[in-house]
Amino acid sequence: MFLTLRARIMLRVLMGFGLAILYLPLVLVVVNSFNKSHTFAFPPTGYTTRWWTAAVHSHGAINGLENSVKAGLGATAVALVLGSMAAFAVSRFKFFGRSTVSFLVVLPIALPGIVTGIALQNAFQSVLKVQFGLLTIIIGHATFCIVIVFNNVQARLSRIGGSLAEASADLGATGMQTFRLVTLPSLRGALVAGGLLAFGLSFDEIVVTTFTTKPGLQTLPLWIFNNLSRPNQAPIVNVVAAVLIVAAVLPVWIAQRLSDDVAGSRF
């Protein structure tokens, strides 16, 4: 496709404007984490690292971080198992309602988080009579984390096809041997990428968590939301937000690199 010089310049300007809208606020959060002022006057009147020291010693932030990590790991584990099983069923077998199963697995990621949260709250409270806690948070996060793993594994299965598994079976390998020596190595990159993305999605979740947690149990995003309007806690919130930016970027970057490396090795 040929573009004139004017069109190329216009596209670059628009792209730069869009990137600025997306990333300048994130840069401001990082700058404010070192801002000496409580009011976050800009430009900063001075720079300090005392807010970072205070964040390290903040019991609420540390406790929220621990809960977020536990919930993220639990939701990721559930998503890896159920998402992979669903992807195998849809990709490798033909059965009545296969397209419906695929649609139902993907649906939770399309629903508004508040709808999912209300539905889960009603199910746990009114039907199942389950006490809210870390387990209900993990289940709530797993409902949409499964989609991430499902999409990654299904895409990889469609790319590698079934010829390698069939060749392994022809050579006398059992189903478990074929899975362990042929299928699993081919899916390793997709599983790692899907797991990292699922963990990042769970770690940042706040809406579903609000409806599935109990009083006093806070994940890190909930702690940030509850302390954002408190003047004494606002500088620490900026530090935690700066850390979360890095924590959110790294899984996405690693997952992208893994996907690119595997795609490059295939083609």
Give a written overview of the molecule.
The chain is mostly helical and 267 residues long. The protein is built from eleven helices and no strands. The chain has one domain (64-266): MetI-like fold. The longest helix is centred in the first third of the chain and has 34 residues, at 59-92.
Shape label = globular
How many β-strand runs? Answer: 0
What's the rounded overall pLDDT mean?
A: 82
* Structural domain count: 1
Q: What descriptive keywords fit this protein?
A:
267 residues; mainly alpha; MetI-like fold; 78% helix
Short description:
With about 270 residues, the protein is mainly α.
Tell me the layout of helices and strands.
Layout: H1 5-32, H2 50-56, H3 59-92, H4 98-110, H5 113-127, H6 134-160, H7 163-170, H8 175-204, H9 207-212, H10 220-227, H11 234-266
